[in-house]
Design goal:
heterodimer, A: about 210 residues, alpha/beta, Nucleotidyltransferase, domain 5, five-stranded mixed beta sheet, four-stranded mixed beta sheet, globular, B: alpha/beta, 2 domains, 10 helices, 10 strands
Amino acid sequence: MLILAADCSLPILSVALLNDRSLLGAIALEGKGSRNEKLLPAIDWLLAECGADRRDIEVFASTRGPGSFTGVRIGLATIQGLALALGRPVCAMSTHEAIALGDPDPERIAIHDDAGRGEFYVSLFENHRELTAPRLATKEQRDELVATASLVISVADFLQHGNVAASCARRARELSESSDAERYRDVTPIYVRLAEAEVKLQQRQA
Amino acid sequence: MILGIETSCDETSVALLERDGSVRVNLIASQIERHRPFGGVVPEIASREHLQHLFPLVTRAVADAGSTLNDIDCVAVTAGPGLIGALLVGVAGAQGLAYGLGLPLIAINHLEGHIFSPYLQKEGPAIPRPERFLSMVISGGHSSIYDVRGRDVVMLNRTRDDAIGETFDKVAKFIGLPYPGGPQIEKHANQGRADAKRFPFPMPQFKDESADFSYSGIKAGAIRLAREHNIHVSGDASALADFCATFQDALIAQLFDRLDVVWSRLESPVPTELAIAGGVAANGTLRDRVAQWGREKGVLVRLPEKKFCTDNAAMIAFAGLQKGEPGDPRRVTARSRVQ
């Protein structure tokens, strides 16, 4: 089974091509600027260098945040476009889930990421399932949440040695065999935060 | 068929056109209600809504046309100008679709979409457009007159500050009318009578005799007059109606003042057609007056179908047909500003 995965939610953009259990190739590159100018060229290059045809891809996997709002949308829009055009399913998951569950590990895992403004995105995973979906936390709340986990991963650290898209592809492969696959067709971005204007409107109305 | 995608502002739109310009499907998911509580378009909310609606619309458009994605032979997408986050949803989606289908992707300047829109018909092939025509684009983002020759578009004037549609919207908001304000002002104006003595609006003139538009003076004047005369949706209805009629008159009068200047400066042979485009082209008073102007000047006036006045993907696909240079989906960029 050939799986193409992309992550555009984080500062490093990544794309990976997985054939069953073997990674055919993965790209990670600085994602600042317009990620759409890098994503499709990266996918095209990866396919060409791996000698793969886009029509042979059976699952299009993508992360759906939390992370850069615009980046999440670019990744999801491109992946949905490809999947619709080629008549293949999408497998979309939280960015934290890709990082936590891309490798088989039954432990309780906590994923945390700097959300700016002194806040953090945190998720928990246990027995290879999401326990707590990405949520916003203060530093104290984060510390409390991650204290329960046997493995704590910071997204920023992971980006330095791991490839998020490759993890996303491995998780998508695992999901393709599970009864959960249908649930992962949901392509709604995980923003966690409301748009700034909505926060202000709520404050005015409160 | 050509697939058009438009997500530059607050309408998600997807259209399918035949090569002859026949509009097979033109779907628009408007976000007006979503932005209403904020009194204007919120870029982040617009971008979120676009992604939510884009692919369901593509799927529905293909189904409504009774075709399949394989009947599409080209994709056209608005690449700018517009809200960058909003544009990127359409562009990235179009990139994925075009690359997946193995098709060319044409990046369209939103303005070119408007410029050619008066030649689209509700049914049947597009009206053959002349090699040369004069175009006036009047919307929430633009107020400009262009000399269009073939594929070349030469700007003859522009607004130095606010766009005409923006002026409609901002003043409407000030007097308590819901967003978008243009149609609301028109509705009230139809109930009133213009009274320039009571509500005097300036006709801006520039020292350099430029034909440029300027709407910030009218906007400031309108807000001052509304304050002085207690004009508000919650106040005296007839005063509100008269104010709206006078304000609308002042906005439209400037269009014709500048159009006359531009027209008088054109070297002969002058264009034989004037094509009006953009959201303000839906204004009934404007439509009547421009038709009158055309009769006086002996110029054929083309007004867009009302559904092609505001942002729509049919005009983007149509602009793609005018362009005809196939592009590479890997090389499309979105730009909030386009020169």
